[in-house]
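Ticket closed. Logging final result for Recombinase family protein.
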Amino acid sequence: MSTILYARVSTAEQNLDHQRTQAEAAGFQIDEVVADDGVSGVTTRLVERPQGKRLFDMLRRGDILVVRWVDRLGRNYQDVTDTIRDFMRRGVVIRTVINNMTFDGATQDPMQQAVRDALIAFMAATAQAQAEATKEAQKAGIAAARDKIESYRGRKPSYDRAKLAEVMDMLGQGHGASAIAKVSGLSRAAVRRIIDTPEDAEAALARWEGGRA
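Final structure:
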């Protein structure tokens, strides 16, 4: 079994070494790094990238694929969700450095599967939304984009990404809103809103996160 880090940078401000350093600082023991430099996650699917293509050839059942976040796999919703599900069908476990999320196709519990698939969809949608927001900001100019983003953001969520993941995880374990609120420290009303409309909760959080290319 191998632990492989896939890293991608698309701008001069990003750094491949930094992604490995982050992964190792989070406790991952990396056996090999596969990296694409100067490749867009918006316009180029993972399977079409020089090194991304290698992943499909080298990953085997039982291997762990580590990425800083799902946006390193891509910025296109369909591509990211298809890629993660393809790897899971092969028996590959995908783990993220940020928030230490784990996507494993081996789970048989229907509720855990539903929560897992929902998280994959939310994170992939967020990656695409951030890319589109960044593109719009570049077109409009920094000053104009700032005004637009501030008016678009709305009220700041009372939770962060880790709290959102905690709520979804506890929900998948069968806990109710009151129990989740007690453990997470969020109000019951906030937990209820996340449970009732998780897609809105994810969208609100994405609006308050900085865009990543």
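The chain has a mean pLDDT of 82. No further action required.
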